[in-house]
UniProtKB/TrEMBL annotation:
The keyword Phosphoprotein applies. Residues 19-84 form the Rieske domain. It comes from Vombatus ursinus. The keyword DNA damage does not apply. Its cofactor is [2Fe-2S] cluster. Keywords: 2Fe-2S, Acetylation, Iron, Iron-sulfur, Metal-binding, Phosphoprotein, Repeat. One of its GO terms (molecular function) is metal ion binding. This is Rieske domain-containing protein. InterPro entries: Rieske_2Fe-2S, Rieske_2Fe-2S_sf, Sol_Rieske_ferrdox_dom.
Length: 170
């Protein structure tokens, strides 16, 4: 009987172990940081006491989200891409847009969601240390994946990574 063989390219196997990206103190000082987590560039925001991590390049055309402003739209906190001003919610990665009713021009435009467009990742705080765990790209496709892989991917030197192999024992 033939045993099944693994044909998956090792480069495509997902690694979802948490990666250390800095201390709480670091984030309280600078409010945002960039990191490479298992070959994926992410930005981590510290905003109003909460941490949010997402792919660093905007789902629209790859704009640098770490250079954007944080603003609230209809009560939802967003990063505004510096290139074309797309609004992306920090907590869910949804793209927001304003809709108007052409039959009622006097109506106030409403903020609506395009759905999840930017991949967000999980941030964990443990003993004053901040870790990022990538969301599983195999679970669902996200528009920002295009700019997080292939020719658009920018990899920093491996020495900037501080990988924690056994997160549970920290
Ligand atoms: S690249 Fe971000 S809005 Fe266009």
């Amino acid at each position: 009987m033939d045993l099944p063989s693994c044909t998956q390219d090792p480069q495509t196997i997902e690694d979802n172990s948490p990666v250390y990206v800095g201390t709480e103190e670091d984030f309280k000082k600078c409010q945002r940081m960039t990191a490479v987590v298992h070959d994926r560039e992410v930005v981590i925001f510290y905003h109003k006491g909460e941490y949010h991590a997402m792919d660093i390049r905007c789902y629209h055309s790859g704009g640098p989200l770490h250079l954007g402003e944080i603003e609230d739209f209809d009560g939802r906190t967003c990063i505004v891409c510096p290139w074309h001003k797309y609004k992306i919610t920090l907590s869910t990665g949804e793209g927001l847009y304003q809709s108007i009713n052409p039959k009622d021009p006097s109506a106030v435009p409403k903020w609506c969601s395009k759905g999840v467009k930017q991949r967000i990742h999980t941030v964990t705080v443990k003993n004053g240390h901040i870790y990022v765990t990538l969301s599983k790209a195999s679970d669902f496709k996200c528009d920002s994946d295009f700019y997080a892989t292939g020719q658009f991917k920018v990899i920093q030197r491996p020495s900037t990574l501080r990988k924690v192999p056994n997160f549970k024992n920290i």
